[in-house]
Amino acid sequence: MTVHRTPIRRVTPRTFARATATRSPSAVPVGVAATVEPLVRTFYRDEPPVRLEFWDGSHLGDDSSRGVAHVRSAEALRHLVWAPGELGLGRAFVTGAFDVTGDLVGVLERLEHAAGSHHVGGRQVASALVAAVRLGAFGPPPTTPPEESRPRGRRHSKRRDATAIGHHYDVGNEFYRLVLGRSMTYSCARFVDERTTLEQAQSAKHELVCRKLGLHERRGRRLLDVGCGWGSMAIHAARHHGARVVGISISSEQVELARARVAREGVGDLVEIRLQDYRDVSGEQFDAVSSVGMFEHVGSERMARYFEVLRDVLVPRGRLLNHAISSVGGSRLGPRGFIGRYVFPDGELIDVGEVVRAMQRAGFEVRDVESLREHYARTLREWVRNLEVAWGRAVELVGERRARVWRLYMAASAVGFEDAGLSVHQTLGVLPDDEGRSGMASTRREYA
After folding, report:
1. Residue 211 and residue 311 share a domain
2. Pure H helices in 313-436
3. 102 and 174 share one domain
4. Which domain does 18 fall in, by range?
5. Is residue 277 within 8 Å of 157, Cβ to Cβ?
6. What are the 10-residue block averages of pLDDT along the chain, 448 residues in total?
7. How far is the C-alpha of 258 from the C-alpha of 246, rounded, in Å?
């Protein structure tokens, strides 16, 4: 492991002698890097996969081709001591005590993939603890960034869900426009080829959903768009297929802008946007239901009821397209994780197998399941790039800490989709009529 520059007062004669006994003179550890090296070795057996620079200018590792990780103060280590794992690292990043210059997605990817499961002995643990003490990692807990969310009340009650949704989506429509681009679509796009732009890919995703729901087969079909965001899916369905759409969201800022966009696009006679919880939709009938990027807020405990509500508003042969992030075995985004605390309070990723089972139990016949995992990784990289290009304006709009939350969250999510830790599935179900007829085409060629 190569260490460079700047001596440090905390290096004692004993530690210096021990180091020089096992290293060549040109590789003698110095500076903060020399002290922190035992800590780093508990994660990486060999040299770290990216360059780590410390607050005194010393560093570990030489590879800066993808980016550089900066530990700007001992406070970064204190965050990790008081909240080990991703929450502590996230807090250090949000406050600026830890930072990355260059390709954040690439740096996170290399750090995660190189972190070994090698055995760490008692002697190494003791050395790491000594290093942490010398660097001032132990002490009073650092101040928790105010951007954290701690919703109260019964989990997934209407009031608590509204609070969680507001924390995530009511950041400001202009900020979302910077990140998402002109499409204003906050879900996985579908890149038809390498030349496809983000805006084109989002339109392709909307068209895929419309065709899976059969909206192209007859104009004027009635669509319920659950979690309609800023109205992009509703506008596409109305403009391209003459669908009569009701879009619902519990984010007031989304609803305000969605209504304005509907009017601006000239589809106000076909699209209605409501500030409404899906649990309050009743007494209406629809030919199709789309739920794109909303299911993560439902939760496994309410999943059965969710599908029952959507079933009850569908006519016979009506279809449901559920588009949601998933993970094998399921995963709750709890308060001890960075995304659960800062981004998606009460969020839950449900195993696609459980989604299929729940849809079938609610009376749907599942006809198609498609993964768009690689597409989401590319979508997130596009969003990260948009944020970084407009960084100054983003900081003006939401503050540096919240902008840093989004940069880290989207970059880490991109890594998750690329290494298959996360996936995203479109699950298509239909309600057969009393005679068992689905009304669906005999092959997938109609929408694949």
Report:
1. yes
2. 338-342, 352-361, 373-389, 391-398, 400-418
3. no
4. 3-134
5. no
6. 39 38 42 83 79 92 85 89 86 95 93 66 57 71 81 67 60 92 96 96 98 97 97 98 97 94 98 96 96 94 96 98 96 81 85 98 98 98 98 96 95 96 97 96 87
7. 12
